[in-house]
Design goal:
single chain, about 220 residues, alpha/beta, 5-stranded parallel β-sheet, two-stranded antiparallel sheet, 8 helices, 7 strands, about 15% strand, binds adenosine-5'-diphosphate, binds zinc ion
């Protein structure tokens, strides 16, 4: 089963992608995480990507499509995969289509812009292992220290308030058309993001179970 998670930055789609992974036992492919890893390893495309990411802009399609192409060709993707953060532009959605990759389900986590800005202020990340936290929704049990590897947590450059507004603008102009594209294909389900993470999880899993039941028929 091939699934796409859509949603504005900070909508919590990454967390829901992990929940779906646990249920279906297929890998989560997060383009953001892969790009940050490439940047940390200082590969050529990683360093190029970092310039855009730090400014809160989208990384050029050629780079991101290259990353996805390589990743979905790996054997662990044979039984399916969950795309978190891809596609974000029409060119990327068209690539998936033209490559003949079947998309079974697209879950859009909807959260208003006001709530997004409020939430992004609480995001923290571990610079060493990449673990993500939120002061309120997913705190580290060690405070500002990573619970996995003991590094001090940081705020991602692109989570700074002035950058967040730009990212939202880009989301509306570039990614909303992708939502319409899948809606027209009849594979889009919208989940309203809730203040309580556990509620969003419940609604997301409900949507997934409904889909699985209907696919079996
Ligand atoms: P968020 O969900 O908070 O936006 P991500 O980790 O998904 O965070 O993405 C971080 C950054 O990585 C984006 O702001 C963008 O610069 C880059 N990026 C990730 N996925 C894509 C994509 N599909 N197309 C272009 N840029 C991307
Ligand atoms: Zn860590």
């Amino acid at each position: 089963m091939n699934i796409i998670l859509l949603g504005a930055p900070g909508s919590g789609k990454g967390t829901q992608a992990e929940n779906i992974r646990e249920r279906l036992n297929i890998p989560v492919i997060s383009t953001g995480a892969i790009l940050r890893e490439a940047a940390a390893e200082r590969t050529e495309s990683g360093l190029k990507a970092k310039e855009y990411m730090d400014r809160g802009e989208l990384v050029p399609d050629e780079i991101v499509i290259g990353v996805i192409k390589e990743r979905i060709a790996k054997p662990d993707c044979e039984a399916g995969f969950i795309l978190d953060g891809f596609p974000r532009t029409m060119a990327q959605a068209e690539y998936i289509d033209e490559a003949g990759v079947r998309i079974d389900l697209v879950i859009d986590i909807y959260v208003s812009d006001g709530k997004i800005t409020e939430r992004m202020g609480g995001r923290r990340m571990c610079p060493s292992c990449g673990a993500t936290y939120h002061l309120r929704h997913r705190p580290s049990h060690r405070g500002d220290i990573c619970g996995r590897c003991e590094s001090r947590l940081i705020i991602r450059n692109d989570d700074k308030p002035e950058v967040v507004l730009d990212r939202l603008k880009i989301y509306h102009s570039q990614t909303m058309p992708v939502k319409d594209f899948y809606s027209k294909k009849g594979v889009l389900k919208t989940v309203e993001g809730q203040d309580e993470l556990s509620e969003t999880t419940r609604l997301t899993m409900e949507t997934l179970e409904e889909f699985i039941a209907s696919a079996k028929k």
